[in-house]
Write a structure and sequence with these properties.
By secondary structure, this protein is an alpha/beta fold. The chain contains 14 helices and 19 strands. The structure holds 4'-deoxy-4'-aminopyridoxal-5'-phosphate (PMP).
């Protein structure tokens, strides 16, 4: 433990964030001659050295395609790839190793279910429920499937704080509902949705549930058996792992019944010109050469987080959230979007009548990296009758001093524009 001093609150004890920051080489740099304040973790997280070094070593010393080779390197790489699958299984507390499908990211994971589940179970006039706060990648694949099948998309609304209205959700469920697809944590508002309750309500009606865990998995312990969701999707790059790798968790029963999404090498059992039989799980859903080095990198990132302890991460990030909320809300003219009781450390805001791009550009020149715009949730912003926001999304390598710096920077911007 280390005592961490801040301007506004005196002393707050936190875990050793300085030590943690040393694990992330990219953080220790200047942009435009100013120390980098990286608050764009919702878009992607930075990588610890152990992930970077492991992947570099794999390319330098071990690279070989998996599953097909009888030679030493291929066998070694196959073992490491399959070990990564087991690490993900343990991380999510999935019942079976073959319930973990490696994809290239959340988008690919959701598209897999939308296509494949749609082919197997969705008919004309059936309904799929999503929420008003979904990322486009949990809307558009369902929309395309609904168009193909002549089915309908139904939408769970949220209140102005950014909390889903569960009573409205219950009213949407009927005998035509085929699946519920809901985000665990909103990337635009930070809301942590009650996904266990949402799943239980759907299950009372025998409806399966897909949870988009892209913004949840890096902030809290995930237990898919306890949550009891049928599918859980996330991207490696948001959990301190590499880009180009992601996961689709699916209950064995569904994955066995669903047809493959993409096809080609690796996903087959036997091919003739008349007929093809498919490989068993998980390979049925992993057509072509997988991103095996990415998968191993993801496993290393998960080991790294487990080493720090997800409880420690969650406690520290809560301190950042409380501190940031207290300080940002003292700024006159700052409007915060997403004030749910249960949320991650994410601040979505507009500063007076300054356009978010202008705020973001000015912050960038002061060394602060934030995201501006609709954050791939255009329907969510329609709720607030605005086009988007400035989003500062923080994680466990961010500091209270960086929040102080953001507040001072915003005051300077107000002086310039107002
Ligand atoms: N869902 C949510 C909630 C997200 O935040 C994102 C990424 N911003 C996605 C899905 C899509 O993830 P990816 O682009 O890595 O496929």
């Amino acid at each position: 433990m280390k005592i961490h001093k801040t301007k506004n609150t005196g002393q707050i004890s936190v875990f050793d964030v300085a030590k943690i920051r040393n694990d992330f080489p990219i953080l220790n740099q200047k942009v435009y001659g100013k120390p980098l304040v990286y608050f764009d973790n919702g878009a992607t997280t930075q990588k610890p050295k152990i992930v970077i070094d492991t992947m570099s070593k794999l390319f330098s010393e071990h690279n070989s395609n998996v599953h097909r080779g009888i030679h030493y390197l291929s066998g070694q790489m196959t073992d490491m790839y399959e070990l990564a699958r087991t690490k993900v299984q343990n991380y999510l507390n999935a019942r079976h190793n073959h319930e973990i499908i490696f994809t290239y990211g959340t988008t690919a994971s959701i598209n897999t279910v939308a296509y494949s589940f749609g082919e197997a179970y969705v008919k004309e006039n059936d309904e799929i429920i999503v929420s008003e706060m979904e990322h486009h990648s949990n809307i558009v694949p369902w929309q395309i499937m609904c168009t193909r099948k002549n089915a309908k998309l139904r939408v769970i609304p949220f209140n102005d704080k950014g909390e889903l209205l569960l009573n409205e959700y219950k009213k949407l469920i009927n005998s035509r509902t085929k699946l519920v697809a809901v985000v665990h944590v909103s990337n635009s508002l930070g809301t942590i949705n009650p996904v266990k309750e949402i799943t239980a309500i759907a299950h009372e009606n025998n409806i399966p549930v897909l949870i988009d865990g892209t913004q949840a998995i890096q902030h809290q312990k995930i237990d898919v058996q306890d949550m009891d969701c049928d599918f859980y999707a996330f991207s490696g790059h948001k959990i301190y792992g590499p880009t180009g790798i992601g996961v689709l968790y699916g209950k064995e029963r569904w994955l066995n019944e669903m047809p493959p999404y993409q096809s080609g090498g690796d996903m087959i059992d036997r091919v003739t010109f008349e007929h093809t039989s498919y490989a068993d799980l998980p390979f049925k859903f992993e057509a072509g050469t997988p991103n095996y080095i990415g998968a191993i990198g993801l496993g290393v990132a998960m080991d790294y987080l487990t080493g720090i302890g997800l409880d420690n991460i969650q406690n520290y990030e809560k301190k950042l959230l409380d501190y940031g909320t207290a300080n940002l809300t003292t700024l006159n003219g700052l409007k915060l979007y997403g004030t749910a009781k249960n949320k991650i450390c994410l601040f979505s805001f507009l500063l007076n009548n300054v356009h978010p791009y202008d705020t973001g550009t000015m912050l960038d020149k002061m060394g602060v990296a934030v995201r501006t715009g609709h954050h791939c949730t255009q329907p969510l912003w329609e709720h607030y009758k605005t086009e988007g926001s400035v989003r500062a999304s923080l994680v466990f390598y961010n500091t209270l001093e960086e929040i102080d710096f953001l507040c001072e920077a915003l005051k300077k911007i107000q002086k310039m524009f107002i």
